[in-house]
Please model this.
Amino acid sequence: MAKYKRVLLKLSGEALMGNQSYGIDTERLNQYCEEVRTIADMGVEVAVVIGGGNIYRGMQAASSGIDRVQGDHMGMLATMINGLAIQSGMERVGLKTRLLSAIKMEQIAEPFIRRRAVRHLEKGRIVIFGAGTGNPYFTTDTAASLRAIEIEADVILKGTRVDGIYTADPEKDATATKFDSLTFSDAIAKNLNVMDMTAFTLCRENNVPIIVFDMNKPGNLKKVIAGERVGTLVEA
Model:
């Protein structure tokens, strides 16, 4: 039994690198697509937002001398490359998909229209949201929060390479301890790096819970959907 009917899965671009230093690791991509298929088979409606950090980050622009707005547009294009890769991978495992873009790219993606996105979900298609919000200065975390609110998702599932939210970075601090659950207020008070503040505020104000979990562990996504205690739950 699925606890959630409609979810938004947020993946970082870096997650697609696998053990590489750049680009898309086919094995990792295929793993993620199989994970999504398992929950789609449960009747869950799935939307996906993917970052572009494995290819280009808008934040790199300042250090490289590129105008920030231009840099952010480059980052949006990187998310579309990842979106196309995920679309191909998901269709390879038998899923029906639609790639929607926040900026016009008629030859490769549909424009984002909220009602159309919801209808695709109702028809059992995996909806992949690309190009962030379509605006510079906003992260894909913010795009994930905004799209989750627009499609009335039950929860945002933030797939990372660690198994939840810790008091510090567990990859750097061996004494870091994990939170099983948090309120939005606690996360802000403790200055925990869940999402950027714009994204986090959107979730808090619209009462959209966030579950941060390890996406790289096979079966974890299905456990989250089934309501098992995996990762860290952030709610009001």
